[in-house]
Amino acid sequence: MTFDPQLRVLYVDNDMDCCDMLGTLLEFSKIETQFANSAAQALSAIQAQRFDMYLLESWLPGISGFELCSRMREADPDTPILFFSSAAYEADKLRGLEAGANDYVSKPEIDTLLGSIAKYLPQAKCAAA
Prior knowledge:
The chain is an alpha/beta fold. It has helices at residues 16-28, 39-48, 65-75, 90-98, 110-120, and strands spanning 7-12, 31-36, 53-56, 81-85, 103-106. It has a single domain, classed as Rossmann fold (3-Layer(aba) Sandwich), CATH 3.40.50.
């Protein structure tokens, strides 16, 4: 008997309410979510384990989400990176995509985010997508 490995997402956001909400939604979709509250925590987590996707807020203490994205993309050119950010200007979206993100979704567009997760993790069965 074989089991499919559970999908794992690293969500980097210093807003605990957003972490709780998104963690609950992804749990319903059978996606394991690990949280990091800063870029430094995220970089440590990435060195310690493998993830199927990264979700980032652009506004982080210390290193910005944009800089984190650039570093992540340089180290890992294949894993999908999505922004789910409060920074909603078109310039923010462009900056995120230029940093190497696959997509940029502004909060609170959760249905759009779930659709994007399903697009980049086709094996995911997103509850609301």
